[in-house]
Amino acid sequence: MPTPPHPAKRRPSPAAVGLHPRNRHQGRYDMARLVAANPALRAHLRRTPDGGQSIDFSDPAAVRELNRALLASDYGIAHWDIPDGYLCPPVPGRADYLHGLADLLAADDNGAIPRGPEVRALDVGVGANCIYPLLGNAEYGWRFVGSDIEPVALHCAGANVRANGLQQAIELRQQHARGSLFAGLVQPQDRFHLTLCNPPFHASAKEAAAGSQRKRRNLGADTAAARGKPPPLNFGGQANELWCTGGEASFLRRMIRESVAVQAQVLWFSSLVAKREHLADLHRQLAKAGVAEVREVPMAQGNKQSRFLAWSFHAPAVRAAWLHG
């Protein structure tokens, strides 16, 4: 692979003002339609002050039934389940990340979004929920490899894949080398248009617990504690889903270092970045790694601001050729 002719360049996208325009979840949820798709959701409906209907987003059981309804009604995913205590992801935000990645590929192909099984993506840390492969295949027809270090998570993800007849579209692999991301997982014959990741954000179990408490308060769950009830577990999450030694910054520095070794096999690497204060250091690490291009793509859902960082070791002409190769 030739050395890039110039250092990595930061090219941020315009500021996000809401969900991606292609996101199916604009505005309020149509609860009547969602209950029709998943009748179990009805038991979790609550009346809002303005007379509408919603759910208690601090209740993991309610969020799980909402997810089932969204996946069934909007994506044709008839079966979806996760064990108690595992991360229950918000579908709209996960879909936004995929739409942003689709735009990333389209920018290298004169605005045409590549669709179909020729596009192959690697989800680093697929989790029991397998949400990115399920959504990405439903929206764009892409094929996925999902990796995880936890056998239980992969077993549950595999159950979701098989129940929806997606064995040909979604492959699951266990990462046996704890502490590695691409090493030992990406095989010599692999070729990926994209990698994506929702990294563990916290540096310790204590920090993760404090973050969950803050989230519960923001969602109003402290009212349950005021009534003498134990607070719910929010969106759940196992230890490896929520924290790792050194937290998000350390995890992403490792990802950047490992991406150098497999740069010839991946068109665009990417990851969510929860904490804005990590971005400056990550851009420095990418420049040291010799990447050809960096994209920082903002996302927003309600009051929550987020973003993903993407990088490629390939020049624009090479990326365009790759999409037609």
Automatic annotation (TrEMBL):
Region described as Disordered: 1-24, 205-231
Main location: cytoplasm
One biological process term in Gene Ontology: methylation
Record-linked Pfam families: Methyltransf_10
Known catalytic reactions: adenosine(1618) in 23S rRNA + S-adenosyl-L-methionine = N(6)-methyladenosine(1618) in 23S rRNA + S-adenosyl-L-homocysteine + H(+)
Location relative to the cell: Cytoplasm
GO molecular function: methyltransferase activity
Keyword Iron-sulfur applies: no
Sorted UniProt keywords: Cytoplasm, Methyltransferase, rRNA processing, S-adenosyl-L-methionine, Transferase
Annotated function: Specifically methylates the adenine in position 1618 of 23S rRNA.
NCBIfam families: PRK11727.1 (NF008725)
Family: Belongs to the methyltransferase superfamily. METTL16/RlmF family.
The protein's name: Ribosomal RNA large subunit methyltransferase F
Organism: Stenotrophomonas nitritireducens
